[in-house]
């Protein structure tokens, strides 16, 4: 970062009282040499002064005796005279028996330490012959040196990791409880060094794009060290890079006022310069100066290019043209080539071949993605950017939510690198723009069916079909020279019938190569049938269909059935288990069929255990199913089995996460079984991995009245997806589609259940008015359909919504009735949920004791059933009640327990809300710095989920915390933003926040 000294701070030199101690003579130890006798001794000074032999603690005696030991340890083997030790322990007014006391302390220490460790010489004492790593300070010094070397070498990831390890050695205050002027001087020295190390690590955090995460820590640090301008500077930059410019400027205003009031000085030039750069929106501040990413499971140097085909043929002019353009990428802003042409013309094959040839020019890696532009649901740029950032080594926690932030971070990570990006099968220029590197030395290859005339600066290439000679050469390479040479005319007829389309030629030739008994003439005769090929070959993209027909016609009956039925499933790909459900076959037999289809190029292996169609092949497979699948009901049955598989599996996930919950008993019983999971984590992994395909299946089944009720039940069972943040928008769109379908088909029971899923969606999104309306409608319809569980859920939801809207009497009525309904169903977890929500109503109406009792009752129910996830919700409610009753320690404990469960269960909404509530506890306990840190973390976790109302609540608490640590400028910015949110929503909290702003304006 600009203005930051390079390197990692070294430990400041000691200022020793008295004369300089003598240096070790030849052969003497400096205290770090290994010694067998003392190999098990360990000492700590970065905290209380302690000693261990192995894992057993050693008694170090009185405070003065520990002060003597610390003074000797900190001299690293050098001798301290008696006079120096007396001065270190007592300063200018030692007791009359000081010398005798020093000798007594030394004698006692010698007895508990190993022989030869504490030695007497030259009228003084020294600690000698300690092994490497025996003193925590020495370990910290070595780690700091290692970090400095790593940073100098440009390896920020390793440098950060090593600094974290060094800082973790501190255990509270250095030399805690040790008296004497020497100990006090060392405390100051080592605390200053610790802060310098911390600043260095935070600086590297910002260099690697971890802005949002750093804000929380820096807020707490500036509260603890308000006059430390370096921390203020880092906080300003972190806020600015997090899109919080007003708060960044407020930090400067707070700092200037504080320095003037406390010291009568202005901020140092570096801080003032940063303020000016922020005011001017200096582009140099927007990007880290060294964007090396955090180590991640994915390699930092990606090599994602698909394998090039060994029989690549022709296209020599295009290969030279594109290769020359990529070779010129160095020194240019960016080289972009966009290849356009009909499906199957060989765009991807050419792009991959050229990319492989150019790899040497891009030593920092190659990225690849299929943008699925020809399908109904093209890949979203923000999803692709997330995948690219992970491949480039960015940690998940550092990846922002919005498209703009991800694109900016992506460009920052690529700055200074030479990376080739292959964007395959793009829909349009708008999809491509956020994915372009935009930096010197990088290049992008784009393939698409449309000419991207609106992609600024792109080198456009129109790829046509092959020439007859190239087409015949490709056919010959696949089929074999011997077979083609004897039937050259038939071979020319074949490639002509394929329209010289590379994909059609490749498929036809591959099938012929796999059938040794066929001649080329047989293949040519088959292609001569105009009913199967002629019209399609003249219809652009449909040209591929004729080639697929040839391959499909040669499949064995079981292969052909698998090809047809698998094409019916929506979603970008399909797992082996889901495919087995579609085909109604055992997994082993299904895998054999799918692998055989992969061999024919009619199916692709997306990853181990996952398969996908090319988008055009999928369309062809569906056409085959409509034409050939007999009886036609088998098509409906295949999709129905897939729906049942997802429903049974999702119900299994729900049951594992929520033992005893009765929802699974009220779902439609699926006719096809689902997966069985070994544990909760395996179940969660499956749900989130299958989220896109599961939701696609739900949408697909909404069209038929026979499958719609089960589709709604599946969505209900998978409602965790609505609270995870990652799939919330897709879940909401799917729920809206199901509600529309239920109304269209006149299915009130299904409509009530669809409304119940939407109630949760709107509740999570902070749209309380709409959630309440949907819940009211759900209750009416469910009662008419004699379906009690949606009534329970909707009543419970209306109760908590009424709490948010300060309609406490209504809320209590809804929750009381929900409890009655849950009890009537024997749904104990549901009853516990309503009890915990009722606890919050009691809390809001001043009945604190009963609020605590109700929350404890909910915890007892959940714990008795082993329901840890719902038990976390109960502990959350109890934490709120205990906060209001003044039992702040217990409140923090319950909320921390809830936080850990929510975090482990990937419940981002409730993880963020638990952090918010912990911030409230910290405020009540007069810990404003910790409150600010927790509130900042809550803002980070709740990005993109929870709605604006909850964000306003967090900002209000953050403002209070910042005000408590003297950062009134930032507090005002937070309250202004919160007030704007509340006013837009028409929330009564707006008046409360405006009241907070009034005194500041008057001042």
Query: What is the overall shape?
Result: globular
Average residue pLDDT: 84
Binned strand content:
5-15%
By secondary-structure content and strand pairing, the structural class works out as mainly alpha
* Main pleated sheet: 5 strands, parallel
Rg (CA only): 35 Å
Counted beta strands? 14
Q: Strand arrangement, largest sheet?
A: 8-9-10-7-11
Portion of residues in helices?
55-70%
Terminus-to-terminus distance: 35 Å
Q: Count the helices. How many?
A: 46
Give the low-pLDDT segments.
1-5, 15-39, 289-299, 530-543
Walk me through the structure.
Helix content is 61%, strand content 6%. The chain has 46 helices and 14 strands. The strands form four sheets. A five-stranded parallel beta sheet has the order 8-9-10-7-11, with helices on both faces. A hairpin with a 2-residue loop joins strand 2 (50-53) and strand 3. The radius of gyration is 35 Å and the shape is globular. The two termini are 35 Å apart. Mean pLDDT is 84; it is low at 1-5, 15-39, 289-299 and 530-543.
Topology:
Elements (H helix, E strand, L loop, with lengths): L40 E4 L5 E4 L2 E3 L4 H11 L6 E2 H9 L7 H15 L5 E4 L2 E4 L8 H17 L3 H12 L13 H27 L3 H14 L4 H13 L3 H18 L6 H11 L3 H4 L29 H12 L7 E6 L6 H11 L8 E5 L10 H11 L11 H12 L5 E7 L2 H4 L10 E6 L10 E4 L5 H12 L1 H5 L2 H10 L4 H13 L5 H8 L2 H8 L5 H11 L3 H10 L7 E2 H8 L3 H13 L4 E4 L2 E3 L2 H14 L4 H25 L5 H4 L13 H10 L1 H11 L6 H10 L10 H18 L2 H17 L3 H17 L3 H17 L3 H18 L2 H17 L3 H18 L2 H17 L3 H17 L3 H17 L3 H14 L5 H18 L3 H18 L3 H14 L1
Parallel strand pairs: 7-10, 7-11, 8-9, 9-10
Antiparallel strand pairs: 1-2, 2-3, 4-6, 5-6, 12-14, 13-14
Helix pairs in contact: 1-3, 4-5, 5-6, 6-8, 7-8, 7-43, 8-9, 8-10, 9-10, 9-45, 12-13, 14-15, 17-19, 17-20, 19-21, 20-23, 22-23, 24-26, 24-27, 25-26, 25-28, 28-30, 28-31, 28-32, 31-32, 31-33, 32-33, 32-34, 33-34, 34-35, 34-36, 35-36, 36-37, 36-38, 37-38, 38-39, 38-40, 39-40, 40-41, 40-42, ...
């Amino acid at each position: 970062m600009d203005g930051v000294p390079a390197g990692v701070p070294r430990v400041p030199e000691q200022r020793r009282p008295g004369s300089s101690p003598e240096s070790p003579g030849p052969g003497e130890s400096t205290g770090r040499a290994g010694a067998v006798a003392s190999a098990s001794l360990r000492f700590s000074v970065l905290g209380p002064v302690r000693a261990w032999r192995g894992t057993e603690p050693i008694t170090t005696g009185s405070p003065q005796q520990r002060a003597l030991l610390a003074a000797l340890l900190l001299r690293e083997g050098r001798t301290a005279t008696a006079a120096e030790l007396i001065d270190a322990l007592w300063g200018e007014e030692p007791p009359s028996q000081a010398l005798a006391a020093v000798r007594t302390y030394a004698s006692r220490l010698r007895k508990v330490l190993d022989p030869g460790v504490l030695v007497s010489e030259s009228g003084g004492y020294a600690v000698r012959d300690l092994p490497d790593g025996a003193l925590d300070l020495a370990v910290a010094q070595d780690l700091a040196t290692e970090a400095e070397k790593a940073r100098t070498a440009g390896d920020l990831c390793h440098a950060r990791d090593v600094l974290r390890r060094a800082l973790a050695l501190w255990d509270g205050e250095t030399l805690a409880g040790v008296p004497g002027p020497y100990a006090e001087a060392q405390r100051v020295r080592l605390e200053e060094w610790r802060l310098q190390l911390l600043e260095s690590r935070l600086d590297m955090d910002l260099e690697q794009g971890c802005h949002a995460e750093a804000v929380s820590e820096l807020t707490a640090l500036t509260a603890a060290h308000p006059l430390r301008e370096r921390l203020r500077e880092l906080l300003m930059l972190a806020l600015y890079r997090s899109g919080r410019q007003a708060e960044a400027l407020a930090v400067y205003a707070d700092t200037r006022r504080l320095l003037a009031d406390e010291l009568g000085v202005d901020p140092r030039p570096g801080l003032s310069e940063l303020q000016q750069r922020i005011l001017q929106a200096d582009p140099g501040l927007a990007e880290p100066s060294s964007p090396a990413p955090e180590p991640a499971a994915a390699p930092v140097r990606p090599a994602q290019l698909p394998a090039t085909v060994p029989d690549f043929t022709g296209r020599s002019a295009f290969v030279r043209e594109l290769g020359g353009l990529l070779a010129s990428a160095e020194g240019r802003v960016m080289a972009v080539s966009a290849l356009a042409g009909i499906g199957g013309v060989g765009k991807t094959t050419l792009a991959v071949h050229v990319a492989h040839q150019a790899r040497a020019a891009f030593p920092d890696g190659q990225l690849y993605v299929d943008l699925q532009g020809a399908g109904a649901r093209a890949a979203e740029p923000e999803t692709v950017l997330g995948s690219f950032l992970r491949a480039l080594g960015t940690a998940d926690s550092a990846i922002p939510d919005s498209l703009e932030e991800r694109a900016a971070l992506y460009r920052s990570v690529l700055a200074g690198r030479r990376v080739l990006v292959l964007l395959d099968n793009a829909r349009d220029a708008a999809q491509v723009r956020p994915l372009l590197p935009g930096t010197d030395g990088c290049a992008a290859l784009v393939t698409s069916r449309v000419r991207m005339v609106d992609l600024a600066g792109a080198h456009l290439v129109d790829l046509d079909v092959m020439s007859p000679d190239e087409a015949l050469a490709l056919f010959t390479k696949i089929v074999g020279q011997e077979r083609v040479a004897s039937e050259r005319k038939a071979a020319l007829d074949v490639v002509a019938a394929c329209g010289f389309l590379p994909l059609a030629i490749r498929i036809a030739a591959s099938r012929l190569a796999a059938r040794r008994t066929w001649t080329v003439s047989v293949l040519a005769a088959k292609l001569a049938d105009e009913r199967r090929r002629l019209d399609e070959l003249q219809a652009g993209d449909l040209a591929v269909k004729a080639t697929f027909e040839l391959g499909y016609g040669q499949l064995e009956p079981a292969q052909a059935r698998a090809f047809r039925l698998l094409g019916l499933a929506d979603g970008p790909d399909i797992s082996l288990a889901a495919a087995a459900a579609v085909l109604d076959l055992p997994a082993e037999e299904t895998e054999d069929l799918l692998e055989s289809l992969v061999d024919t190029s009619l199916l692709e292996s997306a990853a181990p255990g996952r398969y996908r169609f090319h988008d055009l092949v999928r369309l062809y497979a569906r056409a085959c199913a409509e034409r050939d699948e007999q009886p036609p009901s088998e098509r409906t049955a295949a999709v129905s089995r897939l729906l049942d598989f997802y429903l049974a599996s999702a119900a299994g996930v729900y049951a594992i996460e929520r033992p005893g919950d009765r929802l699974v008993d009220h779902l439609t019983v699926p006719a096809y079984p689902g997966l069985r999971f070994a544990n909760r984590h395996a179940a969660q992994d499956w749900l989130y991995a299958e989220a896109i395909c599961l939701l696609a299946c739900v949408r697909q089944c909404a069209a038929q009245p026979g499958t719609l009720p089960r589709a709604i039940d599946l969505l209900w069972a998978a409602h965790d997806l609505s609270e995870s943040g990652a799939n919330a928008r897709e879940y909401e769109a799917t729920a809206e589609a199901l509600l529309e379908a239920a109304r269209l088909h006149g299915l009130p029971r299904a409509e009530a259940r669809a409304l119940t899923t939407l109630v949760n969606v709107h509740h999570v999104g902070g749209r309380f008015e709409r959630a309440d309306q949907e819940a009211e409608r759900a209750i009416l319809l469910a009662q008419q359909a004699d379906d009690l569980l949606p009534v329970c859920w909707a009543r419970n939801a209306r109760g908590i919504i009424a709490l948010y809207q300060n309609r406490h009497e209504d809320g209590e009525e809804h929750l009381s009735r929900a409890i009655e309904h849950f009890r009537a169903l024997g749904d104990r977890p549901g009853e516990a949920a309503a009890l915990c929500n009722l606890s919050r109503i009691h809390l809001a109406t001043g009945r604190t004791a009963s609020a605590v009792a109700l929350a404890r009752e909910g915890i007892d129910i959940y714990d008795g059933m082993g329901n840890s996830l719902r038990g976390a919700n109960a502990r959350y409610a109890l934490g709120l009640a205990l906060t209001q009753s003044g039992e702040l320690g217990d409140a923090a404990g319950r909320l921390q327990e809830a936080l850990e469960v929510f975090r482990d269960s990937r419940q981002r909404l409730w993880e963020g809300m638990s952090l918010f509530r912990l911030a409230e506890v910290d405020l009540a306990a007069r810990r404003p710095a910790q409150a600010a840190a927790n509130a900042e973390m809550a803002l980070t976790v709740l990005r993109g989920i929870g709605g604006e109302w909850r964000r306003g609540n967090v900002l209000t608490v953050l403002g209070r915390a910042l005000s408590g640590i003297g950062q009134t400028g930032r507090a005002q910015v937070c309250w202004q933003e919160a007030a704007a949110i509340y006013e837009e929503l028409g929330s009564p909290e707006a008046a409360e926040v405006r009241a907070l702003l009034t005194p500041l304006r008057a001042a």
